[in-house]
Amino acid sequence: MRRYGKHTDEDDIRTRPSRRGNRPRTHLRPKHEDASEGLVLTVDRGRLTCLVGDRVVVAMKARELGRKAAVVGDRVALVGDLSGRKDTLARIVRIEERTSVLRRTADDDDPYERVVVANADQLAVVTALADPEPRPRLIDRCLVAAFDGGLTPLLVMTKSDLAPPEQLLELYGALDIPHVVTSREGLANGEAADLVREHLDGKVTAFVGHSGVGKTTLVNALVAEDRRRSTGRVNAVTGRGRHTTTSALALPLPDGGGWVVDTPGVRSFGLAHVDPSRVIHAFPDLEPGTAGCPRACGHDEPDCALDAWVTEGHADPARLYSLRRLLATRERKEGD
Known about the structure:
With 336 residues, the protein is of the alpha/beta class. The protein is 19% helix and 22% strand. The strands form three sheets. It has a six-stranded mixed sheet with strand order 10-9-8-11-13-12. The chain has a five-stranded mixed beta barrel with strand order 1-2-3-5-4. A two-stranded antiparallel ribbon has the order 6-7.
């Protein structure tokens, strides 16, 4: 076997000839200036369903995008067959800059981020007041992910006919989060959909919640009948719901009133990716007080400047408590 030293003569190295000819590689990529704009509606095993104009087109990611993946809500540029006919396939050649990103990790020690939805304006956190019981830790985690990703949170409480909402509302009162309280009867007669729809007009809203809280049932009440998804029931033994939604799906609201994104039910919401310095942006009354904090302050340390800021009367102590509760939930499991 021939070995080469440090100062090899490149002309001396043999190369295997190619029948197609040796073409030099280039880092230049086509600009695809004639590409059409589209919106990713859902992703299924490497195939992306996109809305291009008034047509639904199936596409795949172009090789030139490398490891960059498109997710539901992404605005993309497509080339190829955009007719939407059966068995046709377009190519996604560019993913436009995102305005917001909802991320999660499988666990708090999992470094791999999973993007749930892109470019959503708000996050509707759906929780049942009973059957199954509320999980405040999971709600907290969803709120942290919303604040971190640039989404405005909306708290939707279902099944108020089984339990009152006051205790849960008191827990989140200091956060000034918009909320809607619905009942099973309200879902049946359309009243619940009307209450929620008031917060959705002209916006892209992602719906999250653990299985069995009525998330998909609510989404179905908001969208046209021919776009509704299947729903399941809560297990009487475990108190948990069944995963009837297996992938995120963007659905238009009637009369151009915005979009809703139904996501699979979650049983955990890891926050390994969250930086406390980004969460503080959701607390404009507290953020100026961090100017005196030490570098990389977790805002729950003895020398955190927020304590003095609140003591001086610049903000409500309840707001600081809520911030620290949300940040602390990154270190605890949802069921704690």
